[in-house]
Structures are given as structure tokens and as C-alpha cells.
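[worker-b] picked up task from shared queue
[worker-b] task type: protein-ligand structure
[worker-b] ligand name resolved to zinc ion; SMILES cross-checked against name lookup, match
[worker-b] sequence length check passed
[worker-b] input payload:
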Amino acid sequence: MYIDSHCHINFPELAARLPEILAAMRANQVSHALCVAVNFEHLQSVLDLAAAHPNVYASVGVHPDHEQDEEPTVERLIELAGHGKVVAIGETGLDYFRLTGDLEWQRERFRTHIRAAIANAKPLIIHTRSAAEDTLRIMREEGAERAGGVMHCFTESLAVAEAAIDMGFYISFSGIVTFKSAKELKEVARVVPLDKMLIETDSPYLAPVPHRGQMNEPAFVVHVAEEIARIRGIALEQVAQATTRNFLELFRIPRPELA
Ligand SMILES: [Zn+2]
Ligand SMILES: [Zn+2]
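[worker-b] inference finished, payload out:
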């Protein structure tokens, strides 16, 4: 059993193929997917998907790349997180790669999400790109360890992974770990403790090898697990079991009865 801890199957290119995508998950033993919100405008499509499918969960948040979108407040995030299938706050964080200039608004927005997650006792889904130092600093300043969560689509150094783990966070690996060029990331995936690791697709982006260049989907998370097993020299089953258990624990989802 595998779980895709981070996908965007509400995006139109995937939503249009939803029956096929859910069937491919079943065929590949991908039992659950967490559909992550990126703004308020499209949140309803995330919540509708989660309401319609028992194995699809949702988050609430506004992505750091979405500068023009409605700005979240702590109160609004908490109110929206009241939906029964919402298991996390995010994705939130800092992205100094996509956007440049004065990004103080991004840091403020990140703080807002951390405060909402702490107040609401829900884990955070954190996106960080070319901004690791500020991300960790703000996590420390805001006491993010009280909420916990995951560093999603992790591409930073081992030192950053260890600092996040010290604050009680999990490290989630995406299809990037299957890319031949991702040498440093493969090393991180080799040494991060198995009980601190999640796997994800971030679909429709970042399809893993051997689907690189195609549209990504949750069923492909199996290839991320395969690569981690190969790197660590352990059984695929071990990666599957650990990442599934970690996901269910972090997002406080009852373990499903195994058929
Ligand atoms: Zn992200
Ligand atoms: Zn994402």
C-alpha cells in the first residue's frame, strides 16, 4: 500500500480524467491521496473531491507563488479547516525562486498559516524553494514545532532536513528523487530516518522516471518509493509500509481495514 501525500488532482487537466486516475491508484495499490489547496478560489474543488471520495483528503491554504490571490487570515483558515476531510494547513511557505523583489508579504502569509495550524492543532504542509534559511527561521520564531507537519517536495540539503526533523517535521520526497541529476537529494533520501519520510507526486507536475515529461498522477508515487528502496538497499515493502504509517500518523487518519 502506498499513499500520495501531496497532489493537485483538482487541477483541470487531472480532474478531467478523475475516474481513470482513481482507477490507476487502485490498480497500483495507492490507497490514499492528499489533495492540497493552493488558494481560496479553487478550494471548493478540493473540498468537493475529498467529500466525494473516502480515500481523498484535503488541505486549506494559499501557496506562496500566488501573489494576487485572496490573502488568508488566521480566522479564515481556521474556519475553512473545519471541513471534516481537511487534515492540514497549506501549502504554505517561501519561494524565492519563482518570485523575487520584496517578499515580505510571503513571509507574513507563511506566519499566518503557522499561527492557524497551531491554533487549530493541524499539521503544516510547507513548500520551500531557494529560501531554506528564512523558512527555518520563521518556523522557529513562530513555534511551528507545536503544529508539526511536512516539508513537501523536498529538494534542500541534509542539514535543512535535519533541522526540520528536529522541529518534528517529516520530509516528503517527490519524483525529483528519481532524476539522474538529483545526486545530493538521493543522498538525503538515503539517510533520512524511514520513520520521518513521506512520498508524494505533486502531480500534475514532476512526473518520476520512467514517466518523466508526461503528466504526473498519484499512481506514479510507486516509482518514488521504488527509487528510495533502491537508494537505501531495502525492500520496496519497507518503504511502502513506513511511508503509509507515517502519513496516517501525521494527518491523524485512522488506519483503514486491509482487505
Ligand atoms: Zn509546493
Ligand atoms: Zn503542491
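[worker-b] attaching auto-annotations
[worker-b] The longest strand covers residues 86-95.
[worker-b] releasing lock
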